[in-house]
Structure formats: structure tokens, C-alpha cells
Specification:
With 144 residues, this protein is mainly alpha-helical. The protein folds into two domains: 15-45, no CATH class; 52-143. The chain is built from three helices and four strands; from the N terminus they run E-E-H-E-E-H-H. It has helices spanning 25-31, 52-84, 93-143, and strands at 9-10, 13-14, 33-35, 43-45. The strands form two sheets. The protein has a two-stranded antiparallel sheet with strand order 1-2. The protein has a two-stranded antiparallel sheet with strand order 3-4. Helix 2 (52-84) packs across helix 3. The chain is elongated, with a radius of gyration of 32 Å. The structure holds zinc ion (ZN). The site of zinc ion has 8 residues, from helix 2. Residues 36, 38-39, 42, 50-51, 53-54 line the site of zinc ion.
């Protein structure tokens, strides 16, 4: 092996006595470490803006908020059902629990229906809006 020689091979790769790394500014930027944009204690690399720990925290918070909305919806519908009961009838524990389960099922079915509608809207919403727009324009032209 020659010192600073050309064509020296180490493990079938070119061997450089004094290696120089030529990186483009984009590559350097990608390798640079920055503090996390949220907690500013951990470091992130590449295109990431926040560290993995903060991502997990945000995910947990989103999950808790979602569960909170479900609970609020169930309690709201439960209260509505209790309000709609016959005022003179005696409400026993069984009936109260029955209404609670019914409100839970109603929220579950409602959220499923909402998810299906969102999916449908994602694929057909634009077309539907175009059709409505065309129809409205026709009606307006018909009136003039
Ligand atoms: Zn962080």
C-alpha cells in the first residue's frame, strides 16, 4: 500500500489517506442538527421540526382530546334522553343505565357515519359541489 497513493483498496473500496468530503449545501443542511422546535432541549436532524418525544406527546394529547370529545358527546346525548323521558314516570337505575348505553351506541353509530361521510366527501365532494354550482347558475339564468 502506498502512502497517499492512488488506487489503494481497502475492503474493495478506494482508500483515501486524507479523506475530503464534498457535500452540497442541501446535503450539509440535511446533516445539520437543530434544537427541537417545541421543547428546545433535544436535537433533531434532517427535515424534522420536532423531536420524537414531542411527536409522541402531541399524539397522546390528540388521542386524549378525541376521547374527551366522545365522552362529552355521550354525556350530552344521555342528558338529552333523560330530559325527553316522561316527567311523571319514576326513573330507576336500570332505566338510567339503559339510556346511558343507548347514548353510547348513538355516539358510536354517529361517529362511524361521520367517518364514512368524510371518506365519501374526499372522493366525491368536489364533483357534487360542481354539480350544485352548475344547477344554481342554470336556475339564476332561467330567472333572468
Ligand atoms: Zn422536543
Amino acid at each position: 500500500m502506498r502512502i497517499e497513493g492512488q488506487n489503494n483498496k481497502v475492503a474493495m473500496r478506494d482508500y483515501y489517506e486524507k479523506p475530503t468530503l464534498n457535500l452540497t449545501p442541501e446535503q450539509l443542511k440535511e446533516l445539520a442538527v437543530r434544537p427541537c422546535g417545541r421543547c428546545e432541549t433535544r436535537l433533531v436532524v434532517g427535515n424534522a421540526c420536532i423531536c420524537r418525544r414531542c411527536q409522541e406527546t402531541l399524539r397522546d394529547q390528540a388521542w386524549n382530546a378525541r376521547m374527551g370529545r366522545y365522552v362529552v358527546a355521550i354525556l350530552f346525548i344521555w342528558g338529552m334522553m333523560i330530559q325527553m323521558q316522561d316527567k311523571d314516570a319514576v326513573m330507576d337505575l336500570y332505566r338510567l343505565l339503559e339510556l346511558g348505553v343507548s347514548s353510547g351506541v348513538a355516539v358510536l353509530v354517529g361517529s362511524c357515519a361521520w367517518a364514512v361521510f368524510k371518506e365519501w366527501w374526499l372522493f366525491n365532494g368536489e364533483e357534487l359541489l360542481k354539480l350544485i354550482g352548475k344547477t344554481v347558475k342554470k336556475r339564476i339564468k332561467g330567472l333572468l
